[in-house]
UniProtKB/TrEMBL annotation, chain A:
Keywords in alphabetical order: ATP-binding, Ligase, Magnesium, Metal-binding, Nucleotide-binding, Tricarboxylic acid cycle
All residue ranges annotated as the ATP-grasp domain in the record: 9-212
Protein name according to UniProt: Succinyl-CoA synthetase beta subunit
Pfam (any one): ATP-grasp_2
UniProt-listed PROSITE patterns: ATP_GRASP
Record GO biological process: succinyl-CoA metabolic process; tricarboxylic acid cycle
Top-level taxonomy: Bacteria, Bacillati, Bacillota, Bacilli, Bacillales
GO molecular function ontology, one term from the record: ATP binding
Domain of life the protein comes from: Bacteria
This protein's GO CC annotations: succinate-CoA ligase complex
UniProtKB/TrEMBL annotation, chain B:
GO terms classed as biological process: tricarboxylic acid cycle
Pfam families linked to this entry: CoA_binding (PF02629), Ligase_CoA (PF00549)
GO molecular function, one term: succinate-CoA ligase (GDP-forming) activity
SMART domains assigned to the protein according to its UniProt record, in alphabetical order: CoA_binding
Protein's recorded name: Succinyl-CoA synthetase alpha subunit
Keywords: Ligase, Nucleotide-binding
Domain CoA-binding: 4-100
Xref: InterPro entries: Cit_synth/succinyl-CoA_lig_AS (IPR017440), CoA-bd (IPR003781), CoA_lig_alpha (IPR005810), NAD(P)-bd_dom_sf (IPR036291), SUCC_ACL_C (IPR005811), Succinyl-CoA_synth-like (IPR016102)
Length: 369, 291
């Protein structure tokens, strides 16, 4: 789960990583010292370039600037909150992060003297990369390396990296990024931004104030039901009994010139629960696909559960449906579905993909573009 | 000589008294997988059919000589179960559970490696050598013994592959499902080395997917292999940045796309399949060339 900067800063506060004084717009304190930086809260990067961070020189300008920022949409993300922070004077901008490297299967500590810009744009030799063994954890020599590399006082950076590591471990983070990390003229350091991603499978351990999230995307609705859904912009909704099978089915539909409206993996819970399966199918239908292709192959669960849900929700509808099902209670399940004129069943995966394309486009289309 | 699991394996199920664990136990008993015990803390002394349930893995190792464990328990308990199994001396572990926290996975994977334990998953559908031992969720009734080795991240996709192989009149030597999580234990490259050495395998089907750098490692092994490798990378048409089902299946940069992975495998000498159903055609083409 990606956190808003505001939430990341609350975590930083909890773990003793220095930040500037800040408030959500609605909670702005009388004691705030201007100038402030008004920062749009969105779950995407590049806010500076997009004009989503604006300096506020005095109190009279706050309302206008905040209202203006709240109208913005950045890379498709609507600004929902404005966070105001006291402006920091600084000599240098550094970069520090701890990221969980999936390929190396371990956390990696990254440091650079070129903070304040996208780290992807910084050349390799300007980035210090230190892999951390998950069973040994952060070591003192690593922090010393960072202090030499960045030419900063060890005492200062030592504490910040310690606190970052503690946050990373305790909150089961996948990423903690401080970019920029301001160094002030007196040598003090302040985290300018906070980018934090935590593992969606674990409960946060620190008790912080979370901003409400705009629920209601197809992905979120599927996840509430216990499935995994991806919304795309084509015609056919593809619903399968596994992630790998889903991707393979998706590839096959596309290779036959079909386009996909949604890709849904039923997940381990939905395949046993008719009600959940029905809810999920209703969600898919709300996307108004031009056809639905089911492909499920069960080794443990019964096909009847999913077949019953399909019959109840889609049976007799005008929407073309192709169901390819294999596994336990296969015949009975096919019989449940074959009574409906809009539902076609088959055993063969390739044929299923061809049939759904045919039903949408008519004959011939599949062979030329 | 089958690889990883065999007739002499001594299999336990951690979580044997749960619904899933019990279903697996019944099937293993019915189809002669060498299941020797189950473990559920607090349920020691019970039996599933004739199979004893113990409170700890250590008891199962001491009393039943267990060496292989299939784990199906709630995700937040998985790390403890795995560490317990490793410390008790188990050498092959399949984590069937889904939704294990990624920090837990990272620690388990490194702990297993340090103890030379083969850890499959999390979110792995398991390992099977038909006719010998089945520590996977692939039903025994669809498995036929043969010479094709299958290694895949996904479980459901392997069912599809097995069906295809059956239709062609072939069978499988060993099927290995590695798991769809971003951090998993055993990877493709480890299994390819075993298939190359395994006299019961003469052809390999390699199923990968978008995301991660598995194929870079695999390519190095494939270059040195004499047996033909047919490779399919799921997610050829996946848009960038979207998570496509598996938590590991997201394209982060261009080297993780299906097209790039195909290229790497092709250069290493694998026969690359654009879509899975191309396998029968490619297989017979290859056979013609070899004649």
């Amino acid at each position: 789960m990606k956190l808003y900067e505001y939430e990341g800063k609350r975590l930083f506060e909890n773990y003793g990583i220095p930040i500037a004084k800040g408030w959500l717009w609605q909670q702005l304190s009388e004691e705030a010292r201007y100038p402030l930086m008004a920062k749009s809260q969105v779950l995407t990067g590049g806010r500076g370039k997009a004009g989503a961070i604006v300096e506020v020189t005095d109190r009279s300008k706050v309302v206008l600037i905040a209202q203006d920022l709240l109208k913005k949409t950045i890379r498709g993300h609507k600004v929902s909150h404005v966070y105001l922070e006291e402006k920091i004077d600084y000599d240098r901008e550094l970069y520090l992060s701890i990221i969980l490297d999936r390929n190396k299967k371990r956390p990696v500590l990254l440091a650079s003297g070129k903070g304040g810009i996208d780290i992807e744009a910084v050349s390799r030799q300007d980035i210090l990369t230190i892999p951390i063994h998950p069973l040994m954890g952060l070591q003192a020599y690593m922090k010393r390396k960072v202090s030499y590399f960045l030419q900063v006082e060890f005492r200062k950076i030592d504490e910040i990296i310690d606190h970052m590591w503690q946050l990373f471990s305790d909150e089961q983070a996948e990423l903690i990024e401080i970019n920029p990390l301001f160094v002030q003229s007196n040598g003090e350091m302040v985290a300018g931004d906070a980018k934090v991603i935590i593992d969606g499978h674990t409960k946060p351990s620190a008790n912080i104030d979370y901003l409400p999230r705009q629920k209601g995307s197809f992905e979120e609705k599927c996840s509430d039901i216990g499935a995994v859904g991806v919304e795309l912009d084509g015609n056919i909704a593809v619903i399968t009994s596994g992630a790998g099978l889903g991707m393979a089915t998706f590839d096959l539909v596309c290779s036959k010139r079909g386009t996909v409206r949604a890709l849904v993996d039923l997940g381990g819970h939905v395949i046993h629960d008719v009600n959940a399966a029905e809810e999920l199918i209703k969600e898919v239908r709300r996307l108004s696909p031009k056809g639905i292709l089911f492909n499920f192959y069960f080794q443990v669960a019964s096909c009847k559960v999913t077949a019953t849900a399909i019959a109840n929700i889609l049976g007799g509808d005008s929407l073309p449906v192709v169901v390819r099902l294999r596994g336990i209670d296969q015949e009975e399940s096919e019989n449940l579905l074959s009574v409906f004129p809009n539902i076609e069943t088959t055993h063969d995966l390739e044929k299923a993909c061809e049939r759904i394309n045919f039903k949408l486009e008519g004959p011939g289309i599949a062979h030329h573009r | 000589m089958p690889i990883i699991v065999k007739e002499e394996s001594k299999v336990i199920i951690q979580g044997i008294t749960g619904n899933v664990g019990r279903a697996f136990a019944n099937r293993m008993i019915q189809y002669n997988t060498p299941l020797v015990a189950g473990v559920t803390p607090g349920k020691g002394g019970q039996y599933i059919q004739s199979i004893p349930v113990y409170n700890s893995v250590e008891e199962a190792v001491v009393l039943a000589h267990a060496d292989t464990s299939f784990i199906s328990i709630p995700p937040k308990f998985v790390k403890q179960a795995v560490l317990e199994a490793i410390d008790a001396g188990i050498k092959v572990i399949v984590i069937y559970s889904e939704g294990v926290p990624i920090h837990d996975s990272m620690e388990m994977v490194h702990y297993a490696k340090a103890h030379q334990v083969l850890l499959f998953g999390p979110n792995s559908a398991g390992v099977v050598s038909p006719g010998k031992a089945n520590v996977s969720d692939i039903h025994d009734t669809i498995l036929k013994q043969g010479k094709v080795g299958v290694v895949s991240r996904s479980g459901t996709l392997t069912y599809e592959v097995i069906e295809m192989i059956n239709k062609m009149g072939l069978g499988v030597s060993t099927v290995v499902c590695l798991g769809g999580d971003p951090v998993i234990g055993v990877q493709h490259a480890d299994i390819l080395q075993r298939f190359e050495k395994d006299p019961e395998t003469d052809t390999v089907i390699y199923i990968g997917e978008i995301g991660g750098n598995d194929e870079m490692l695999s390519a190095e092994i494939i270059k040195q292999m004499t047996k033909p490798v047919f490779a399919y990378i799921a997610g050829m048409y996946a848009p960038e940045g979207k998570r496509m089902g598996h938590a590991g299946a997201i394209i982060r940069n261009s080297s993780e796309t299906a097209a790039q992975k195909q290229q790497i495998l092709k250069e290493a000498g694998a026969v690359v399949l654009d879509v899975l159903v191309d396998f029968p055609r490619s297989y017979s083409d290859k056979a013609v060339i070899n004649k």
